[in-house]
């Protein structure tokens, strides 16, 4: 893989070693390191070693390369602490989706209990939709392929 870097990107600086990180896994294509915020203990970021802003800029080869590493890294995080009971795997894309660093990254957030200071809320909006509205959304998406 050809690596492109953005000199203003904090994650590119971490990849190049200009900024230290707590690396847990690294190969030619990806780097995984502890998120400095540690939303829960073991919170890890997985990033491609080439600068790419978000999921919308991936091609199939890069996606296959990066996402194929997630299960092994997630399993290593889980195996590192017997108290881990589950894991959220998140990828935020765009400011509205809470992306704050514009170098694609996947969060691996270990879960310990129902009260481990991490929450996701999926509101049930199904009452706002009928068959016609679901079908319109479905067809709008299918038309993009």
Mean of pLDDT: 96
Low-confidence stretches: none
How many domain regions? 1
| Major beta sheet summary | 5 strands, antiparallel
Termini separation comes to 26 Å
Order of helical and strand elements: HEEEHHEEH
Please give the CATH class: Alpha Beta
Radius of gyration: 18 Å
Q: Write the CATH architecture name.
A: 2-Layer Sandwich
- Biggest β-sheet: strands ordered side by side in the sheet: 1-2-3-5-4
Category from helices, strands and their pairing: alpha+beta
Organism: Secundilactobacillus odoratitofui DSM 19909 = JCM 15043
Pfam families: HIT
GO molecular function: catalytic activity
Motif (Histidine triad motif): 103-107
Could you please describe the fold and organization of this structure?
- Helices cover 26% and strands 17% of the residues.
- By secondary structure, the protein is α+β, with helices and mostly antiparallel strands.
- It has one domain (10-119): 2-Layer Sandwich (HIT family, subunit A), CATH 3.30.428.10.
- It has a five-stranded antiparallel sheet with strand order 1-2-3-5-4, with helices on one face.
- The two termini are 26 Å apart.
Topology, element by element:
Layout lengths: L9 H7 L6 E4 L3 E5 L9 E5 L11 H8 L2 H10 L6 E5 L15 E6 L19 H12 L3
Antiparallel strand pairs: 1-2, 2-3, 3-5, 4-5
Give the gist of this structure.
The chain is of the alpha+beta class. The protein contains four helices and five strands; from the N terminus they run αβββααββα.
